[in-house]
Amino acid sequence: MSIGGSSSDRPTVSVVMAVYNGAVLIRETIDSLIAQTMPDWELVVVDDCSADDTVAVIRGIADRRIRLIVSDRNEGPVHARNRALAEARGRYIAGLDHDDLCRAGRFATQVAYLDAHPETVLVGAAADLIEHGKRRPPPLPLRTSPALIRFLMDLANPLVWSSVMIRGEAARALHPFTRPEMQYAEDFDLYHRLSALGTVARIDAPLVAYRSHAGGVSRINVDRMTDRAAAVLELAHRPLFGSGAARTAALSTRHFGGREPVADVATLAELADMLDRLLEAFAGAGSLDPADAALLKEESSRLWWRLVRTSIHAGKLTRREALSVRPKSGFVSGVPRGQRLRLAGMIGRARLLDPRRRAGASSPR
């Protein structure tokens, strides 16, 4: 059943949203759409058979740009999002989850970017984090380029779904739009599939706010998300790593994406080799301009030393062990200055001396 949106006019932006039991937060999310400085949008929201008052909340909002589709059975967010895309009329397709928020200038900024960059099929944005009711600034990296985003997609998911805007013809060229078999990492899979059609980019201004809360899908399904993301990366890694792609994809997803500490020096060495090979292949595939090369070095170094610091801090590796291995690529800088590695080493040593910590450190996660 569908209500609203009787006009045949084609809006500039169609927002596709899947919702299940979102009554508590969806009104605030829709209010952030109504506050957009660019009013030429429609919201196609598919209620996935909610058991709460979600439908009543949406119906209570008097805005003809909202198109509500009520499913008669629960099929999951991938099917709901695909149904929303099938009904979307916009020139551009914007992703948005029912519990996230848009800044007022989001649509105007992203539409202007896509209009000015016809080679770009998807543009995301930086995202603030809302946790325990407090808004925090976006995590690093603060500066990106399409080249850096493309490289990062071979390590982990660099984009927030609620921040993306996609060129409509590119979205409609995919069958299906998002793949049910990739549920929990269907957005990451979508970005890889779209990258075959054009450029994927990010606007570095925080145009959305992403909520992290106990009921969020990403908090509930962490293991499933990790497994599906690794499956996406395995396909991307296969041309370079062959039969070892499943291993490199799992390592990258867990340690670069999930920020897990490594358990031993051998695993750290595997990650160093993987990063070297990815960097060399990426740099060799085309000419990097100096600005892109600088961003690539900055972010590769940050990711590597974050992993080292996390592993030392967790008591998995001593500082000496962690510093005995590093990528050989010129894209990873030397040991960063400051006290953070030394402080991590002090904490790590204390954990290794604690028999309970030491037992835990040697067991798999």
- Tell me the series of helices and strands, N- to C-terminal: EEHEHEHEEHEEHEHHEHHHHHHHH
Number of strands: 10
Largest sheet: 10 strands, mixed
Instruction: Tell me which CATH architecture of the largest domain applies here.
Output: Alpha-Beta Complex
Ranges where pLDDT stays below 50 over 5 or more residues in a row are 357-365
Number of domains: 2
What is the CATH third-level topology name of the largest domain? Spore Coat Polysaccharide Biosynthesis Protein SpsA, Chain A
* First-last Cα distance: 46 Å
What is the structural class? alpha/beta
Average of pLDDT: 91
Which class of the largest domain in CATH terms?
Alpha Beta
Fourth-tier CATH superfamily name of the largest domain: Spore Coat Polysaccharide Biosynthesis Protein SpsA, Chain A
What is the count of helical runs? Answer: 15
| Principal-axes shape call | globular
What is the radius of gyration computed over CA atoms, rounded to a whole number of angstroms?
22 Å
| Helix fraction by DSSP (H/I, runs of at least 4) | 40-55%
Query: What share of residues are in beta strands?
Result: 15-25%
